[in-house]
Structures are given as structure tokens and as C-alpha cells.
Amino acid sequence: MPEKPVFVITGPSGAGKGTLEAVLLARMPDELALAVSATTRPRRPGERDGRDYHFLSDEEFDRRLALGEFLEYVTYVSGHRYGTLRSELEQIAASGRAAVLDLEIEGALTVRDAVPGAVTIFVDASLAELERRLRERATESAGEIGERVALAREQKRRVDEFDHVVVNDELERASRELQAIVSRELAAAATMPT
After folding, report:
1. Most buried residue, 74, 129, 171, 186, by most Cβ within 10 Å?
2. Predicted confidence band at 194 (pLDDT cuts at 50, 70, 90)?
3. How many domains does one find in the chain?
4. Closest C-alpha to 67, from 44, 45, 38
């Protein structure tokens, strides 16, 4: 049986990656599963280990990193680390589904280079729309929003490094486009010789 592709979804903050992924996973539950990331940040109220994240101590993260158990990882300014465990992809593959990874841009490119047949998808939106969505979230200060918009401007210059670009200007249209891309890639992988 041919291997299923790994779908790597990325894009600037505020582009709506999470929303599009939720719609995609709800529409294709038998074909796809979201890879749960590992993190060293503390668990927030209501979060469950193994569902929201794999919560690891710094020591456990270091141990697994030294053993080569991470496909990719990143350290944020906060000092907290996030990464994708290889075992997460193995577990999803064993279930007969394709993995969906929600990663920042550098992590997405690392996976693209490390996983044969990885399909990279850049979710984009206009800078004005990104700024509007960030302001609606009300989770960042005005200065942080300005920094995120400046970062988004830089990230948008890299869209040519990805296999597909989905502009999230209207949720239903963008959701259908993302689902069509995933369906085509799954069909193409199914016809590949093993």
C-alpha cells in the first residue's frame, strides 16, 4: 500500500490556518489526523496532555531531542520549545490516515526537506486582513500586532517555497480549495507505485 503524504500547513499569524484545518479535519476524519505537537510551555486550564499538546519538561524535551525523536522543533522568544515527534507521524500512519502538521514557516520547510513526499501549503491573507484578525483576537498589544504584521510581510515573500498557496479571504471558498488540494494529493499518492 502506498505511503500517505504528510500535509504541512503554514502561514502568517492571523491567516486562519487553525480555522481551515478544523474544517478540513471535520470534513475528512477518515483520511486525516492532526499531529499533536510537543511543548515545554506549561499546560493552560482546560488543556489535556496528548490532545492539545504533549507537555514535556525541559529535561524530557532535551532527552528526546538527543535521541533524534523530533522531526523538527523551534524555540520561541519566551524560551518555550515546540516540536513534532516522529512517533506522532508513525501513529497517524499506522491508523491509515495522513498526518496534518500545523507549523511555523521554518519548521514547515524543515519537514519539507526531511519527509519525502511532504506537501506544503501556505495559508495567506492580505496584510490588512491579517491585522484586522489580530486586533479582533485581542491577545496581543498594539506593539506586538505591529511586530506580527511586519513578520507576516517577510513571511509572505516566501510563498514560492511552498507547493500550494490558499488565500483565506472567504472561509467557505478557502476551505473548499484546501480540501480539493488535499484530495488531489491523496489520490495522486494512492496511484504511486510502492
Report:
1. 186
2. low
3. 1
4. 38
The confidence score (pLDDT) of residue 146 equals 78
* Beta strands 32-34 and 7-10, pairing class: unpaired
For 174, the domain range is 7-190
CB 32 within 8 A of CB 24: yes
What lies within 8 Å, CB to CB, of 102 at 6+ separation is 9, 10, 17, 18, 21, 34, 35, 37
Indicate the pTM of the whole model: 0.89
Cell of 117: 513526499
Q: How far apart are CA 8 and CA 96, in angstroms?
A: 17
Closest to 70 in 3D by CA, of 58, 56, 88: 88
> Residue 32 maps to which CATH number?
3.40.50.300
In a domain, 153, yes or no: yes
CA–CA dist 135, 51 (Å, integer): 28
Per-residue confidence band for 33, with pLDDT thresholds at 50, 70 and 90: very high
